[in-house]
Automatic annotation (TrEMBL):
InterPro entries with a match to the protein in the record: Kelch-typ_b-propeller (IPR015915), Kelch_1 (IPR006652)
Full protein name: Uncharacterized protein
Transmembrane segment boundaries: none
Pfam entry (one): Kelch_1
Length: 381
């Protein structure tokens, strides 16, 4: 196990002028520790490398692209919910400040498309679910409040398709089972409307905590621990596409490159994993890829292509980037090679805890789980 962060790498070092495609995995929780670690996977070279860590450790945060750059939004920090946001400048290999959200929260979802970046829902200070929707206004460099979702939720998935924003599943404050409800935001009408709910699994009334992304004319909905669905806005219907490649896989992140969807991190059968798979939407096949070096769950992922740069391996924070919080100590991170078998996902999951596992307990045990939740909340103090 190594507690020393290796030197960060610059963005593309071959110098041949060709664009490189990368899958970035940002922050998350590493065996109960909230981390700022950033790794990226080179699609062409098939290996992982470390980038400069974020200024702030965060998990259960949102990650999306804005202007072709990776943006990390809010989330749970080491001591509290965050409103801070930061953006990665791959040309200089630094993280810079972005305007803060109006409402600090974690377990939110972020999505971008058609020039818009949204932060949707989440859990506010561990007290209540939010339906708040904010859109980043790049011209004014601030977040603008939009209409709230009809159903406040957390641990849900979002995606932008044809200018509209979709939200699926998650958990609300009153349910003893994960939500099946889904809704769509039309920015021209500035309103949310309900769409077809997630399909049932057998006799279960539960929906699920989900991750989402848009490819082509559909939204792909990854229901944690269950299956992959494809939602068609044209027919307002779902089709089961596949089971997940790992059993009881929760807390992972998804992102797209072209028609491929990358799924990474999380926990499988209670053990933390650095696994990454790519789902080829054209063939319907899964392909296993090399694992991340640092096992994480509740991380965020984004994929992009950019030209190589010649920035040095280690770049100090620029004047436009805030200094790391003084009270934050760089947490020890555990590499995949030492996490096999003994790295169980536990309630030491920072601000927010293991909600995706708790929601499954609620689905099975109903009212009993409410008592368990109340005991758990009291334990937080």
């Amino acid at each position: 196990m190594s507690a020393t962060e290796p030197p960060p790498r610059g963005a593309g070092e071959s110098g041949d002028g060709a664009e490189r495609e990368y899958v970035y995995v940002v922050g998350g929780r590493n065996r109960g520790r909230t981390v700022a670690v950033v790794e990226r996977y080179s699609v062409s070279e098939g290996h992982w490398e470390r980038c400069t860590s974020m200024r702030t450790s965060r998990g259960s945060h949102g990650v999306a692209l804005i202007g072709g750059q990776v943006c990390a939004v809010a989330g749970g920090g080491i001591n509290s919910n965050l409103s801070s946001c930061e953006i990665y400048d791959d040309q200089r290999n630094v993280w810079c400040e972005l305007a803060e959200l109006n409402t600090p929260r974690h377990a939110l979802a972020c999505a971008s498309g058609d020039g818009a970046l949204y932060a949707v829902g989440g859990w506010v200070n561990g007290n209540f679910c939010s339906g708040e929707t904010e859109r980043y206004d790049a011209a004014q460099k601030r977040w603008v409040t939009c209409s709230a979702m009809q159903v406040p939720r957390r641990l849900h998935g979002t995606a932008v398709l044809d200018g509209k924003l979709y939200a699926f599943g998650g958990i609300d404050d009153s349910s003893t089972t994960p939500l099946r409800s889904a809704e769509c935001y039309d920015p021209e009408k500035e309103q949310w409307s309900l769409i077809s709910p997630l399909p049932r699994v057998g006799d279960s009334k539960a929906g699920g905590c989900v991750s989402c992304c848009a490819v082509g004319a559909a939204v792909y909905v990854f229901v944690w621990g269950q299956r992959l669905l494809r939602y068609s806005p044209a027919s307002d219907s779902y089709k089961k596409v596949s089971t997940l490649p790992l059993k009881e896989w929760y807390g992972f992140a998804v992102t797209t490159l072209g028609e491929d969807i990358y799924v990474v991190g999380g926990s499988s059968q209670g053990a933390w994993t650095g696994a990454m798979f790519v789902f080829h939407t054209t063939s319907g096949d899964w392909e296993e890829l090399p694992k991340m070096k640092i096992v994480r769950r509740r991380c965020g992922a984004a994929a992009c292509a950019h030209p190589p740069t010649t920035c040095p391996l280690s770049v100090p924070l620029s004047k436009t980037a805030a200094e790391p919080l003084k009270e934050e100590q760089p947490p020890k991170v555990v590499e995949e090679s030492v996490c096999q078998g003994d790295s169980k996902a536990t309630a030491e999951d920072g601000v927010g805890g293991d909600e995706e596992q708790l929601c499954c307990v609620e689905a099975m045990f109903g009212p009993l789980s409410l008592w368990l939740r109340s005991i758990r909340e009291k334990g937080r103090g």
